[in-house]
Amino acid sequence: MRLSSIVVASAALVASSVQAETVTARVVADDYFSVYVGNGSGSSMALVGGSGASTWQSQGAPFSFEVAAGDYIYVAAWDSASYGPPHMWIGQFTIGSTTLYSNTTDWTTKFDNTVKDPSVAQVSALAQSASSWLLPLASMPNGSSPYGSLIGGSPASMIWHDTFGGDSASESGYALFRTLAPVVAVPEPSTYALLIAGLSLLAFATQRRA
Question: Taking the model in full, what pTM does it have?
Fold first, then answer.
């Protein structure tokens, strides 16, 4: 392989390692949830996990997924009409040495009052809708009644967009939550420029010695 090709391949390898991270998540929702990753607008979104048919008593097992630079995490949660209120969700997301918790400061939210168990397309449409993203209003500590301690006694909070009760505006639909910022920062262009420049100098020096 030519030295210049090695430089390009090395740059691409380093760039890809900067742009990809593995997230280990634990989530519980009353009654159901789905987790997505996507861009800030919601126009690009992929389903990465969910509760399936399990209700909150059987949820909380860890699951993992990949995120790229600039990706946000989205959580959709909804209450089953069969069980009624209260409703909430709680979660923690570990990315490298950092753990993100559900709370009223690191997440924004909006809701739909017509659909339960939404599809990826419906979640994407809500994310892109004209309704504003707002901070969640309802919060209670992990361990609170009637749920007790969830996901290993995590310091995360149980949250909802307006109220835990049956008068929630999303009672007939679902609530959507998005991280306030990308979970993996987008590297500055100067980072790549410095990387490529350094590798190029290394290649030049190696060729001179040869």
Answer: 0.82
Which 8-state DSSP code applies to residue 53? Answer: T
On whether the CB atoms of residues 103 and 129 are closer than 8 A, the answer is: no
95 CB-near residues (< 8 Å, 6+ apart): 21, 22, 23, 67, 183, 184
**Tell me: the pLDDT tens digits for 57-96?**
999 999 999 999 999 999 999 999 888 889 999 999 999 8
The pair of three-digit structure tokens given for residue 112, joined into one six-digit string:
């739909």
* Residue 59: both structure tokens together: 């949820």
Strands 88-95 and 174-179: unpaired
Distance of CA 184 to the CA centre of its chain: 10
Residue 85, both tokens:
């209120």
> 195 vs 1, 25, 158, 191, CA distance in Å?
20, 32, 43, 6
